[in-house]
Amino acid sequence: MSDNDDLTSLRLRVEGFVQAVGYRNFAIEEASKLGLDGWIRNRTDGTVEILISGAIKAVEAFVAASMRGPTGARVKNVEIHNAEPPTEKGFHRRSSV
Question: What CATH number corresponds to the domain at position 56?
């Protein structure tokens, strides 16, 4: 078994009241604590988009946290799709689209 066998990459689309409530900062802290790579950005439709990559258990923990969000956020739905891993290490904030 290679090291890559227990890694995964997911793209999340978080719906609800998730902008202007510190959601991106919350996600950056969670990803950093869990040692994950990827990025986060606001979308013009009011959702937040996340690419998250790393060890399966850490990614699962991040997804669970993203479903809660920070105090003040109201997450209604999280769409989850398989994705290609990010090209850079670390977890970063991207410009809104």
Answer: 3.30.70.100
